[in-house]
Amino acid sequence: MHRLFIATDFPDEVNEALANICFGIPAAKWVPKDQMHLTLRFIGDANDTMLSDITEILEHVNSSHFSLTLKGVGYFPPRRKPNVLWAGTEPSAELMELRDSIENLMEELRLPGEQRKYHAHVTLARLRQEAPLDRVTGYLSAHGLFRIDAAPITEFHLYSSVLTGDGAVHTKEASFPLI
Questions:
Q1: Where are the domains of the chain?
Q2: Which of 14, 27, 32, 177 meets the CB 3.0–4.6 Å disulfide criterion with 131?
Q3: pTM of whole model > 0.85?
Q4: pLDDT tens track for 109-128
């Protein structure tokens, strides 16, 4: 079985800028800069046949490359004790078109959709229970104006993910260029 998701990556300089704000909260498990990505669709467990079907159908995504602005920081779940810190994006019609195209193809394969509303973000850290709330709110305040303009989105990838004691290890299964 494979644990799959579809995501886009960023150039090294964008990942470096993201990594530069990954500090200052005890009990935070910061995402390594080479693992940073923006998830377009979580799939979950899939066998070899489904992996092949997903790879094949993703060849039909017909979207153009675009630039994305990363902006601000926040946390999940909203209005409760934070357990994930993230960097957000400005609204992007191109990103939503790409995501909708992928979602429509996943529906053709009869893969169940996500029940929560899509929120484009880059996970920066996972927070353990003992993460001090005052440090989290201080972090949000200090980095609230974080911004990266014109991060190029030129391709997307099908990833597999293995959960380990040190965090998830992601492997690119296939890449798909945007025209």
A1: 2-177
A2: 27
A3: yes
A4: 999 888 889 999 999 999 99
